[in-house]
Amino acid sequence: MLERECFSGCGHSRLVLNMVNQTSVVIAGAGPAGLAAAITAAKNGRHVTVHERHSDVGYRFHGDFQGLENWTSTEDILEQMSAIGIEPEFEVAPFKELVCYNHMGQEHICQSSQPIFYLVRRGNAPGTLDSELKEQALAAGVEIIFNSSCRELPEGGIVAQGPHRADVIAIGYVFRTDMADAAFVALSDQLAPQGYAYLLVHKGLGTVASCMFTDFHNERIYLDRTVGFFQKKAGLAIHNERRFGGSGNFSIPPSAHKKNILHVGESAGFQDAFAGFGLRYAILSGHLAAESLLDNSPESYEVAWRKHFLGLMKSSVVNRYLYGMSGNSGYARFIIGIANSKDALVWIRRRYKYKFWKSIIYPFASRRFGKRLRGMCIEPGCNCTWCRCQHEVLK
Ligand SMILES: Cc1cc2nc3c(=O)[nH]c(=O)nc-3n(C[C@H](O)[C@H](O)[C@H](O)COP(=O)(O)OP(=O)(O)OC[C@H]3O[C@@H](n4cnc5c(N)ncnc54)[C@H](O)[C@@H]3O)c2cc1C
């Protein structure tokens, strides 16, 4: 018998007694979603095999800084990770202050008593989120097969292959610098259309990028402007820079499982449509999917992800719709709202509540995204990428 503490999100923990089931769990993709699933399943007695198509984890990242956000739940993300069996032993830095600029370059300081986000590094270098998740998975007994592209899961399993198309892109530089630690954000269509430009500095390393939700063809122009802007406003000093870039997708799938195949992380479309923060969704959805397999109940995954993410994701779709329409002057009001609030984190959290008025706007907002909001194809064995899929998404 195995005693297992379940992540329920309802304020108390649920103890489940399970017969140890030695059935194998197969996972496609060793990103945060796949590895979180692997750690949960392996720690609960399953034999877990993860197929990763690249030669190591974190292949699509380059040492760039990302934020583990703290605003989609009142529970601190690091505590939440510990509660599901992932120790935050990777390099992590809490940020309670954000320096925000509007399109006119006016500066506002946004502060919180709690970390607004935790800075983490991505890639395969020691200390990154990805390499630490890999170490914890290996320590739990997970077998990771690298250079193994997994196209089908005939016996069922978890699909954690990351994004399949680009709804948002971020391009920038990772670099060395002598700047002091700080986080800067600029909201301006001239720097990052309908998105945000950011500069993150920690312990002599930096990441500067433009994260845009439209007009991808002019990415180079936006990046050049972003660098110029932060040089002027924040004293950006770049040494030994390397280019990086990547994309993300978001959708609200009608279903994230088909029979015994469960989709997690960005593979399922789980992502914050407003700001493109997908890490928390990836880690938690991986954990929830593994839990449902442990309970021999893939259907319960459907209930679990809806309970945890559906309201948040619908809210983020409405936020994106309103934000996208508001233009530079709307972004400027957004910054003033955060900066004038008593606590920036509390202010942002409120924007993610799926309130009644948002449910009225949601049908209009979702229509703007069209079919793509209905999600990725989850046909077993489907290997189409970049939105060329001809399969119907599940009703
Ligand atoms: C530039 C950039 C900046 C970002 N910044 C932030 C941020 O600050 N905060 C935040 O929360 N989110 C951020 N995101 C989003 C975040 O990185 C993703 O949401 C998160 O990595 C999704 O995790 P995942 O495990 O679902 O997918 P991934 O991290 O993409 O992992 C998927 C893995 O599956 C592997 N794979 C793919 N296909 C196969 C196959 N057929 N067989 C085997 N393996 C396969 C891939 O090689 C990869 O290792 C950012 C994204 C980008 C691109």
Which key features would you list for this structure?
binds flavin-adenine dinucleotide, seven-stranded mixed sheet, FAD/NAD(P)-binding domain, 8 helices, D-Amino Acid Oxidase, Chain A, domain 2, alpha/beta, 395 residues, six-stranded mixed sheet
Mean pLDDT: 89
What proportion of the residues form beta strands (DSSP E)?
15-25%
Quickly give the structural class.
alpha/beta
CATH topology of the largest domain: FAD/NAD(P)-binding domain
User: How do the SSEs run, as a string of H and E?
Assistant: EEEHEEHEEEEHEEEEEEHEEEHHHH
CATH C-level name of the largest domain:
Alpha Beta
Largest sheet: 7 strands, mixed
Distance separating the two termini? 38 Å
Bound molecules: flavin-adenine dinucleotide
Q: What global shape is seen?
A: globular
